[in-house]
Amino acid sequence: MAFRRQLQLMILHLILLHFSMFSISYALSDPEILLKFKSSLANSAALKKWENNSSPICNGIRANWAGVICLKDTVWGLRLENMGLSGTIDVDTLTALPRLRALSFMNNNFNGSIPEFKKISGLRSIYLSNNRFSGNIPDNAFQGMVWLKKLYLSKNQFTGPIPASLATLPRLSVLKLDGNRFSGELPDFELKQLHVVDLSNNQLEGPIPASLSKMKADMFAGNKGVCGAPLTACKSTPADDPNKNVAAAAPSKKNISRWAIVIPIIVGVLIAIVAVIMINWRKRQQPGPKVEVSPPSNPKTKTGLKVQDRAIAATPSPRSSNGMKLAESATKLTFLRDDDRDKFNLPDLLRASAEVLGSGYFGSSYRTELPNGSAMVVKRYKQMTNAGKEDFQEHMRRMGRLKHENVLTLVAYHYRKDEKLIVCDFVKNGSLAVHLHGHQTLGQQGLDWPTRLNIVKGIAKGLAYLYKELPSLVAPHGHLKSSNVLLNESFEPLLTDYGLIPVIDPENAQAFMTAYKSPEFVHHGRVTKKTDVWGLGVLILEIMTGKFPSNFLQMGKGSGEEDLTTWVKSIVGDDEETSSIDMEAFDKEMGAVSDRDGKTMLQLLKIGLSCCEDDALKRLDLKEAVNRIDRLKLGNISSDEESYQQYWSSSGSDEDNK
Question: Is pLDDT of 630 > 90?
């Protein structure tokens, strides 16, 4: 009996194994997967041709089925927009497409809960804007989607808190949740790649986290309960008041008798403390010798700014009936923007430890951290002694009005006759020069080709902005080089040390500023409107070759920049029609690239050469240079997100392009 039972179980096991093997061998083809997915949709007339389409779905990168994006003969994405679709987005069926990376169902009529997209862990982009999805999104809805870069949920009917799992996605760069009914407090998005977060027109409340405080104010508009930078400061609540409930109840006679004894003692102690403070303060107001300490040579010192800038506070002010105000003005910073930023003064900087970031002919730069935790950079310029106070202040006000995503905003300045201080925000990733030439020493990876192309585009945009906003300056930047390009946490470039020519002593400017190394100044003693273009060209060559221009000084009679140009021409030629690719010219740190990317790299190198023409008349003007750079696209179709964006852009309906 037992043997018979074992035999039956064995036979049943073999039957189940047979069926499981049969089902595995009968995996659905891509057309069958898409048709099964379509069956879950309602109002799918726009996809009627899928049924009668005998052509293969993909032919390389070309799709024969409407709404499908292909990559290497496989389905890479679905773009089913503006089709009036409703029903169910069958995620389980879509998991059978192994190369699926992008989904867009924008401008349809889908409703109900958000689909379980985390089952497709390889997704890079999800676009669901302008539908009727509703309800709370589970906290773990996006858990494990480590490749997700863009999420668009705008203009639906989602409610409840923002799911916490969104704050755990390391590659998330764009998050659009506007036009819903999300409520509760904002998560702290400490994500390095995140640069766009639109939370407007919801029902959110509470303070804006520090990680989002530098987003544009309109990203939070329409949330009545949200406060803090970049919006108005949060109001203190009774729970925040350390004196809350004081005297909430009438004191008893016993308490009154105790206070009758304690209060006189407290008052006496306070009077004594105030007297000591006043005596010490008067001693500090006595004129004393001016203290000057030269910048420390050790770049790791933590006290450079704190020691040196005591000279500013120690310099005696003229005595007058208004002596107190004059003493205050000696340590006062002039802020260039009227925003919600916490104001501070030189004493705040003096009390903070400082780290020397660099020391050059123009002066030194220091990183200092304020009590509120924000990090600032203080630049000390000693080559502006000929700049009159009124001229300097007017120029600083002009610089302070500049605001562009690729230009580092000035925060404040301090004027003294023998030196000037300029304060700006600290940029954590440091300079482009470090990432090009010093990354190995710091244990960092080199910049890849897509990052370098993005950096060049950002530099060009920032330079074009300076030309537009500072038309009266012959060279609006004047000191363009890799050490004057900073990289933020998303590796977007920020131009710094711009607009200095009007306030730098001419003889010093000619000796050390990049503009005065240009061929037109070396040969003709003049700077032109195309001088910054020449600087842009040299910078492009440096970015693409990874070679530092000054390393060529020993190789020829001209400037290092001219020799770098000559070396590049010797490898790739200067014929605009040349299409051959010699990878010897390119920095190997960029990694392997496709032939299509190689051609784009060659195009950029030739744009750099066209910007470096010795004859300014033959040199590209800035507008043409920027237009040419802007037209360059990543050619490697295997770069998933970029290919997707190119496809979206070419059709003109991607929400990114609105």
Answer: yes
